[in-house]
Amino acid sequence: MRIWSRPTGGARGTVQLFTGCTGAIAERDTLAAARALLTALGYAVQTPAAQSCCGALDWHAGRRADALPLMTRNLSAFDPALPVISVASGCGAFLAEYREHTGAALAAHDILMFLDGADWSGVSLAPVAKKIGVHVSCSLRNALRGEKAMMNVLARLPGATLIDLPENTLCCGGAGDYALAHADSSRALAARKAALTIESGAEVVVTANIGCRLSLQA
After folding, report:
1. Per-residue DSSP letters for 139-204?
2. CA distance 202 to 210
3. CA geometry: angle at 143 spanning 132 and 115, to 5°?
4. What are 39-83's pLDDT values in tens digits?
5. Are 176 and 211 in contact (CB under 8 A)?
6. d(C-alpha 79, C-alpha 196), whole Å
């Protein structure tokens, strides 16, 4: 089964939305916003119900036998010819590695990188008069090389002031299951990030990855 969100009028294309294992729990608002924005840009959005966790946590922890069935399920759930959009850079980075690990590939895209290349000519954005602290996740910066895309998309917000947070090249302490496996050092990294963010004067913080968001919120 595929859940559809369709644009008004004719669609310029169809994309598939990857929800991930945390989607229904911690990313409902983000996923809803992604559907709304993608349809506003003219895309029909499919959300395959049969999809699963991307497998990154198991794979990176050395549990390859647990990760492979999850990857196989996603390869069956998604149409390989259509873009697969992820709202979490950690998931997106691993989805892009499927060919390397399984021999089969998905057309994986981080949402910020996809939006940066989209046609925004028919979209009008409401003003956001806030100081936005931009936290660039390690997976977006180092694995996907999408830091510029994040800044380009946020720069479209009228009235917003973007603040490149201090020590943005350092991990926030989230890093997949790092917060569980190495709780003390994870909390130390997150505490420093939080202090620097407060000092920056940012009114709101945006990040490209669910692990980073949960770490910073905690």
Report:
1. IIIIIS--HHHHHHHHTTSTT-EEEE-TTTTS--S-TTTHHHHTHHHHHHHHHHHHHHHHHHT-SE
2. 19
3. 50
4. 999 999 999 999 999 999 899 889 999 999 999 999 999 999 999
5. yes
6. 42
